[in-house]
Design brief:
two-stranded antiparallel sheet; about 210 residues; single chain; alpha/beta; about 40% helix; 4-stranded parallel sheet; binds uracil
Length: about 210
């Protein structure tokens, strides 16, 4: 359902479009209410020939301001893990399952909240367009919501993270902890969670090199 008439942007890929075309149209998306109270659409970012795609959940405050995924605190942790694994972020494509920031008012402050199922559904055609145009060899899902979008509703992050899967669309898929989840761990579990995230990203880097991507 569209929330405004007269300027309707059908979500998803149209015949003949490039990634830049799709990104430009996504900036005018009105397929869910999230566009209304945010700065901008945060579409995926990275070269259109990237072979490795990272998929997170939704933009946060910094991402909403800058228009680029994973540039806030979670992005900084992600960057550290990528650097340690020897993966150059500028060669990767980084995106989210929802492309506007979901937030809730707490007092006078906007606090991030998980995207609703309806928001994920409304935004899915944009993710499908990114997958169809990039055709990544490897997808790294950051957190359970992204993993469930790619690997199915039954996916259990606690039991299945760090393992390789294949889908009809993507030959190599691995899911790991969301960096923002790592950052909110209490002191006694922070180091273990961080080590898990870093080890999973190192595993992705090994596969990336083994496939000579
Ligand atoms: N968390 C996400 O899932 N995506 C971002 O872009 C930033 C934080």
């Amino acid at each position: 359902m569209l929330f405004e008439t007269g300027d309707e942007v059908p979500p998803g890929l149209l015949a003949g479009e490039t990634l830049a075309d799709v990104a430009a149209r996504a900036r005018r998306c009105r397929a869910c209410p999230l566009y209304a109270d945010n700065t901008q659409t945060v579409f995926g970012h990275g070269p259109p020939d990237a072979r490795l795609m990272l998929i997170g959940e939704a933009p946060g405050e910094q991402e909403d301001r800058q228009g680029i995924p994973f540039v806030g605190p979670a992005g900084q942790l992600l960057d550290q893990a990528l650097a340690e694994a020897g993966l150059a972020r500028e060669r990767l494509y980084v995106t989210n399952i929802v492309k506007h920031r979901p937030w809730v008012l707490q007092g006078t402050r906007r606090k991030n909240r998980p995207p609703r199922v309806s928001e994920i559904r409304a935004c899915r055609p944009w993710l499908d367009a990114e997958l169809a145009l990039l055709r990544p060899q490897i997808v790294l899902c950051l957190g359970a919501p992204a993993a469930r979008e790619i690997l199915g509703k039954e996916f259990k992050l606690t039991q299945q993270r760090g393992q390789w899967f294949q889908t009809p669309q993507v030959p190599h898929v691995l899911a790991t902890l969301h960096p923002a989840y790592v950052l909110i761990q209490p002191p006694e579990s922070l180091e273990a969670a961080r080590a898990t995230l870093f080890a999973d990203i190192a595993e992705v880097a090994r596969r990336y090199r083994a496939l000579a991507l």
